[in-house]
Amino acid sequence: MAKTATRKTAPKKTSAKKTTSTATPDSMLEKFFQDELKDIYWAEKHLVKTLPKMKKAATSAELQAAFDEHLNVTKEHVARLEQVFEMMGKKAQAKKCDAMAGITEEGEGIIEETEAGTATRDVGLILAAQKVEHYEIATYGGLAQLATTLGLNDVAEILRTTLEEEKEADETLTGIAENDINYEASEEKEDE
Predict the structure, then answer these.
(1) Is the pLDDT of residue 25 over 80?
(2) Going by fewer Cβ within 10 Å, which terminus of the chain is more open, N or C?
(3) Would you say 31 and 88 are in contact if contact means Cβ atoms under 8 Å apart?
(4) 95: phi > 0 → left, psi -120 to 50 → alpha, else beta; which?
């Protein structure tokens, strides 16, 4: 859902240099930061599995293309997080993100509860996807700030790149909804 032409990419994984926190070694904040990285890493990996389902359920070709594009971007987010772990001298580990699990479960419910081939389903998919984006925006914004606080400026820069892409994805979804889908859905009638 991010625009390919404006997307920034982080340095290749092979060029990642180890970075050291300026915080007290083994500080509670650094441990919390690492734990939250594991959380968003799980979330991004989970989205790699979820986005194809959303694309398949979508009716609008524009929405399908947006989900497909964001799948590619999400794979880059996974790679960036792996780079961040490497820069911190840590093994990339995922910890189940209950928030993302709940949001994606809600999205699956929307698919089950709406009629296939309708604009109403697409409206629901857009809403579910925007909930995902807003969670990611909040998470990446907070993590970037924590990285700066910890003196992990290279890490903060990578996280901010992803943050901007998540904001672009949210704007893309809003544009798709406003272009036609919301209006088409408003004219659909339930079968009686």
Answers:
(1) no
(2) C
(3) no
(4) beta
pTM here?
0.86
9 pLDDT tier (thresholds 50, 70, 90): very low
Residue 6: other Cβ atoms inside 10 A? 9
Surface-to-core class of residue 31, CB atoms within 10 Å of its CB (0-12 exposed, 13-18 middle, 19+ buried) = exposed
For residue range 155-171, what is the model confidence (pLDDT) as tens digits? 999 999 999 999 999 99
State yes or no: pLDDT of 19 exceeds 70: no
End-to-end Cα separation, the chain, in angstroms: 36
Checking if the pLDDT of 174 tops 80, the result is yes
Instruction: List C-alpha distances in Å: 89 to 37, 82, 84.
Output: 13, 11, 9
Domain limits, the chain: 28-186
Is the domain spanning 28-186 CATH 1.20.1260.10? The answer is yes
The token duo for 106 is 């809600």
187 Rama sector, left if φ>0, alpha if ψ -120 to 50, beta otherwise: alpha
